[in-house]
């Protein structure tokens, strides 16, 4: 087991749940709103957790961070969601140290996505990282790791075709409409909710349906107006939701609320109505299927859709995994340098103390003592010595642990804090 100087007496964990074991209902229980995410970060600080990143998407909720025991992170999640520890234990996963690092690489690179090659997760990971950084919850290890994951994601996207075809729920929803609705360009389409998924869906609707009858509604009207202005679409007030549903043929719901925003009582029309619910938790009440004219499709079904490019994308998995290995190896090489960095720093400090003592002695002995020249020479010698030791410790042919112990023994250096990774 390697030991690295990253975080005092803590391990790095990835805890969470995803579409693989948790259905939409359970994922909804553990979904974090923006406010809940901030509350979680504040609670983490209050509990003296030094570094963590939280992601919550329609497909997964995860916490990456340092703790003495993973239950500390699990408790943070359960305290700030509707989920319980019992529910979590039934469907969740806990990865530690290198397994946690490997998991983050797979998630950020689209290999663990519900739709293979979905790269929306990497932008969500970036925004989550910025939020943690703003709350002073990002240590050098986690920041370096996330930058490595972003690098791997970029390379996979540019060097492979893993992201060809339908790689997101927003695109899959439009693909479903095109396959199941005739004359879609002449149908009335209502998009309710203009968050990230709503915006992406809107863009795909405009691009692929050639429909000019798209209406947007959002609780905050000015957000809808910003998107509508970009595509020259219609915006209606939230108060007009029921009226607009009666006029529409296709209703797409992506409101991101924690309770259903659409139920059967809002639907007054008897004409056929297709409803696509792209939200976690579900934002469309199941009671709408009691209406004979309504067809309800949830994002979990859309995510299972396969298209003609899926097999082609699968062929690029080995290439993507090789890219991940390369970037991960570079990250591990950096971790190796972190392993002995505190010892080198302590050695440099010890040598500086030797130099200071000797300079004081010579200063008293010599009447023409050249302060500036003596400082320059001693600093250069200290740098050359520490560089020499650093190069030695990077040598793959020597035992780093044995060398570190010898250096600490010879120079009587204090034992630095350690962490297992």
Automatic annotation (TrEMBL):
Enzyme class: oxidoreductase
Keywords, in A-Z order: NADP, Oxidoreductase, Porphyrin biosynthesis
EC number: 1.2.1.70
Catalytic activity: (S)-4-amino-5-oxopentanoate + tRNA(Glu) + NADP(+) = L-glutamyl-tRNA(Glu) + NADPH + H(+)
Residues reported to bind substrate: 57-60, 113, 118-120, 124
Record-annotated Glutamyl-tRNA reductase N-terminal domain positions: 15-160
Keyword ATP-binding applies: no
Site label Important for activity, positions: 103
Xref: InterPro entries: 4pyrrol_synth_GluRdtase (IPR000343), 4pyrrol_synth_GluRdtase_dimer (IPR015896), 4pyrrol_synth_GluRdtase_N (IPR015895), GluRdtase_CS (IPR018214), GluRdtase_dimer_dom_sf (IPR036453), GluRdtase_N_sf (IPR036343), NAD(P)-bd_dom_sf (IPR036291), Shikm_DH/Glu-tRNA_Rdtase (IPR006151)
GO molecular function: glutamyl-tRNA reductase activity; NADP binding
Record-annotated Quinate/shikimate 5-dehydrogenase/glutamyl-tRNA reductase domain positions: 179-304
Biochemical pathway: Porphyrin-containing compound metabolism; protoporphyrin-IX biosynthesis; 5-aminolevulinate from L-glutamyl-tRNA(Glu): step 1/2
Pfam families according to UniProt: GlutR_dimer, GlutR_N, Shikimate_DH
Any one GO biological process: protoporphyrinogen IX biosynthetic process from glutamate
PROSITE patterns, A to Z: GLUTR
Every Tetrapyrrole biosynthesis glutamyl-tRNA reductase dimerisation domain range: 319-413
Record bears the keyword Oxidoreductase: yes
Annotated positions binding NADP(+): 193-198
Function: Catalyzes the NADPH-dependent reduction of glutamyl-tRNA(Glu) to glutamate 1-semialdehyde (GSA).
Subunit structure: Homodimer.
Family (UniProt): Belongs to the glutamyl-tRNA reductase family.
HAMAP family in UniProt: Glu_tRNA_reductase
Further remark: During catalysis, the active site Cys acts as a nucleophile attacking the alpha-carbonyl group of tRNA-bound glutamate with the formation of a thioester intermediate between enzyme and glutamate, and the concomitant release of tRNA(Glu). The thioester intermediate is finally reduced by direct hydride transfer from NADPH, to form the product GSA.
Protein name per Swiss-Prot or TrEMBL: Glutamyl-tRNA reductase
Gene: hemA
